[in-house]
Amino acid sequence: MAKITFDGIEVEVPDGTTILNAARQIGGSIVPPAMCYYTPLKGSGGKCRACLVRVAAGSAKDPRPMPKLVASCVTPVQDGMVVENTTNEQVLNVRKGIVEMLLINHPLDCPVCDQAGECDLQNFAFEHGVSTTRYQEERRTFEKIDIGPLIQLHMTRCILCYRCVYTADQIAKGDRVHGVLGRGDAAEIGTYIENIIDNDFSGNVIDVCPVGALTDKTFRFKSRVWFTKPVNAHRDCPKCSGNVVLWYKGKDVLRTTARKDQYGEVKEWICNECRFEKKETSDWQIEGPAHIDRSSVISANHYELPVLNQSVVADLPESTVRDLQQNPPLKLGN
Amino acid sequence: MGRKLLTEHINVEGIDTLEGYRKHGGYRSVEKALKTMTPDEVVEEVKKSGLRGRGGAGFPTGMKWSFLAKPEGVPRYLVCNADESEPGTFKDRQLMSKLPHLLIEGMITSSYALGANTSYIYIRGELLYVLRILEKAIAEAYAAGFLGKNILGSGYDLDLHVHPGGGAYICGEETALLESLEGKRGNPRNKPPFPAVQGLYARPTVVNNVESIAAVPVIVNEGGDEYAKIGIGRSTGTKLISACGHLNKPGIYEIELGLPVEEFIYSDEYCGGIWKGRDLKAVVAGGSSVPILPKELILKTAAGENRLMTYESLSDGGFVTGTMLGSGGFIAMDETTCIVRNTWNFSRFYHHESCGQCSPCREGTGWMEKVLHRLEHGHGHMEDIDLLVSVAKQIEGNTICPLGEAAAWPVAAAVRHFRHEFEWHVTHAKEAAQPGAVYRAGAVLV
């Protein structure tokens, strides 16, 4: 076990835990943002630099500060480490710089982007960025690539987090044909991504994408996400766990996604049949409202009632109640 | 004339063959090390010599070797970084093509010191002809029993492989090099873990520059203490400097560290002064990624002392008034050089070579290049100058590998020392945009 001090709060975690995961044990607003790190994906992290923190003391043995800011998602803790995140001016300034860098070539087409409302980049920019840009040059564009009838690729929105590459590599095993081609700011997700679309679990790349680069074609332009209501549901699926979130607008299931935790990370991968084909309420056993516990517009004003009203809670399935108890609803801005 | 430890026989006929090389004392260090020394004794000699990495960072080689993790039953690797692609640096190419056996001898002695039984030379893809020279030399060394099983009857085995890269500058970064060597895309790794613990194929690995490894035979032959006598302070031994730019005698010079910069530029023994009788304007002392310095600061430090060719003297004054010895790519620029154009050219290189893995470097290098392009072509604004500094600062120190810094330092230093030229490009946009236009004390020189 290693004891570290994060923003003045002490926490004890197993050896080998990364600084980011130690901070997540504390939780709340001190957790560094992560745009590329994704716990279920081995090898992810270290790329977006959004989670940079300052290590004021390396360890109890060697209390010298680290010379540079470190990526908290890939740096393991040492016993006696002192980390500064929100308490350090330099870290916050660098984060502003990272937002600026990520946005200079981003098309900022949020008004027509399906990801808007549940976009990590939006949240990140809203919380840490500045509202103006100093960039005057033309934004980078790419040739459009059609990757099949289920998934829409918008390379211009991509922040090259490599999550989909790792997903293809690790979830869609054996069919690894997609990666990053090109170098520098001309780097793009490989065109061979279309070849993994045949895989039963290819749809998960939509869930892992932090921005609107990979979106669900069956949900394209149907609705803004904050007008849809997330509901936990499951079905007996021979391929996956069948535990999903259905997004309703009125009586219609507009889309299906995997269940995500409070950091937007998929809990269980789901198969393409569940995601793209089962769009009727009769296909599913409804469990109850899903709670989206992120600083997203979706969580504003939705489903606070079940927690407050005990008689409603009594009717809910046990798993949903547990979920709600563990992740009490947050209001936007809290 | 300083001593030449590496390049004494470089121009001897037939030195690239094993026979010719042996005639001039070649492979003595292998015999000495394998027959009379333990691996730890070799490491100790290298430590004593004070040899510092010749690839740019200047990290003490002996210390790097002693950091190598040595778990039981796990193979270790020595990898020679011959992916020399820094603009302005071309010393390793010459060393390898003319003296292939020196590098091989160094690899054998170093591998023995580190306990590596398989070693690699990762060579820049464009240097295919050097690769062929090395392969021929390695075949000769195998035939003579210096490589392979049971070298010189000592019971030590070593296999040496040469591996060409695909021509990416980023693969000169040690972890990107290891990725590339493993057959993957050349993206730098996150550190820790460092290569000394988890390097090639997740095994403990040492990555050294060609020149560092080539210095090992000399150290073993003459002794670390003897080597340390050359040079000043913590900068010991000799260094290859590839001098280029507006010099009368550009080329590769082996200098004893501690040579005054002024002597290096102006004496006939070395570069012989600035060509066409012109005046020196600026110098990039260690390859394109180190900060550029104007004439006054490269010849004398801010305190007025003579600037010497040592790690310490060149970095005297930090980045405010100093620079770095780097990899020894010495670029001299005369008064007809446009600093803005030159800075744009450098940043175009880094934009092209950024691997695109982490966001500050991927986006920032392109941004700086576009702003510099605008300034150079007469479309700049006064704010752009501060913008450049700010973007450089946002990249510096926040990236996975040092390429971010390499891209940011030259831009920040150019603005720091030649701000008036950038301002002139804004105020005299029309003149500045003409091809070949150069600011010189307010006058245009076309």
Summarize the model shown.
Chain A has 334 residues and is of the alpha+beta class.
Based on secondary structure, the structural category of chain A is alpha+beta
* Largest sheet data of chain A: 5 strands, mixed
Gross morphology of chain A is: globular
What's the main sheet of chain B like? Answer: 5 strands, mixed
- Cα-to-Cα separation, first versus last residue of chain A: 32 Å
Shape of chain B: globular
Poorly predicted regions of chain B are none
Q: Can you give the helix content of chain B as a percent range?
A: 40-55%
Total E-strand runs of chain B: 13
Cα-atom radius of gyration of chain A: 20 Å
- The CATH class designation of the largest domain in chain A is Alpha Beta
What would your notes on this structure say?
Chain A is α+β, with helices and mostly antiparallel strands and 334 residues long. Chain A has 3 domains: 97 residues, Ubiquitin-like (UB roll); 114 residues, Alpha-Beta Plaits (2-Layer Sandwich), CATH 3.30.70; 104 residues, no CATH class. Chain A has a 5-stranded mixed β-sheet with strand order 2-1-5-3-4, sandwiched between helices. In chain A, helix 2 packs across helix 3. The C terminus of chain A is likely disordered. Chain B is α/β, with parallel strands linked by helices. Chain B has 3 domains: 212 residues, Rossmann fold, CATH 3.40.50.11540; 103 residues, Roll (Ubiquitin-like (UB roll)); 91 residues, NADH-ubiquinone oxidoreductase 51kDa subunit, iron-sulphur binding domain (de novo design (two linked rop proteins), Up-down Bundle), CATH 1.20.1440.230. Helices cover 43% and strands 14% of the residues of chain B. Chain B is built from 19 helices and 13 strands. In chain B, the strands form 4 sheets. A 5-stranded mixed β-sheet of chain B has the order 8-7-11-9-10. In chain B, a hairpin with a 2-residue loop joins strand 12 and strand 13. In chain B, helix 2 runs parallel beside helix 6. Chain B is globular. Chain B starts with 17 loop residues before the first helix and ends with a strand. At the A-B interface, helix 2 of A face helix 15, helix 16 and helix 17 of B. Chain B: Its cofactor is [4Fe-4S] cluster; FMN.
